[in-house]
Amino acid sequence: MFVARSEGKGLRPGRVTLKDVAEAAGVSATTASFVLNNRCESISPETQKRVREAAQRLQYRPNLSARALATGKTRRIGIVLNQPESFSTRDTYFNEVLEGIIRRATEHDRNVLLLSAHYPSWHSLYADITGGAVDGVLQISRFVDDELTPALLEAGFPLVCVSFRTDHPATLAVDCENVTGGRLAARHLLDLGHRRIAVLYPGEELSWGAERLQGIRSAMAEAGAELGKRYVLAWDERSLPSVQWVRTAI
To answer: What is the CATH number of domain 74-174?
Structure first.
């Protein structure tokens, strides 16, 4: 709880309110609200300065629940993680993705909320998301049996898919050039003189798996090499295959 100082006009004990800030700055509550919510294009710089200084002096903190109720916005972006274990010191890709999201959210005066796709179930998470926990969602990666993504897309909730795509017409996605990546990987091995190449991937049900396999097949066909069925190995995307599993499979 924040307590107003006893000095100054119109201040009273208890939680510092927007009205307290407005009175201390000598402006209306509406003007103070516009300034503190960065909607102050028509308000003079001098007035803005008075309001911000008063808010800082009184240690004013907005009531986020009240703000969300009044505006219908939480100023929070949800990040749905299908594989929280990926965010470790061993996986630089996902760490860089998360770092970029947080940096850009901060630049736009937004906070982020990390959400697990599996707690306690996707139905509960769907209810929280669409019930006002966040204003929009970035979903990072997905499993084949993912039901949250299609449900959010069907509901028209703001959603961006990161590192995967879906066939839903409302899909907005940020992803790698997976076909090109597959081609480059295969081309590297082919240039080293290898012709019997095995592919480990999570299956064609996931967009990135299908696209990378497409690129690999294309590069090998151009080189006159064949990718035999026995060398295309799919695994459960929830866990990487062991070396022994690979040796047994091929």
So the answer is: 3.40.50.2300
Structure confidence by residue, pLDDT tens digits, 150-199: 999 999 999 999 988 888 898 899 988 999 999 999 999 999 999 889 89
DSSP of 184-234: HHHHHHHHTT-----EEES-TTSHHHHHHHHHHHHHHHHTT----GGGEEE
CA angle 131, 136, 142 (to 5 degrees): 100
Nearest to 76 by CA among 55, 35, 106, 103: 106
74-174 matches 178-249 in fold: yes
**CA neighbor of 27 nearest in space, from 49, 58, 5, 4:** 49
pTM of the model: 0.64
Measured distance CA(184)–CA(216) in Å, rounded: 8
Q: How far apart are CA 144 and CA 156, in angstroms?
A: 21
Q: Rounded to an integer, what distance in angstroms lies between the CA atom of residue 110 and that of residue 102?
A: 9
Q: What is the per-residue pLDDT across 61-85, written as a single tens digit (0 to 9) for each? A: 776 666 655 666 788 999 998 766 6
Q: What is the CATH topology of the domain spanning 18-62?
A: 434 Repressor (Amino-terminal Domain) (1.10.260)
Q: In 3D, which of 156, 229, 158 has the Cα closest to residue 199? A: 229
Find tokens 């966040």 and name the residue: 134
**Which amino acid appears at position 214 of this protein?**
Q
Beta-carbon contacts of 49 under 8 Å, excluding residues fewer than 6 positions away, are: none
The CATH class, in words, for 178-249 is: alpha beta
**Domain boundaries of the chain, sorted by first residue:** 18-62, 74-174, 178-249
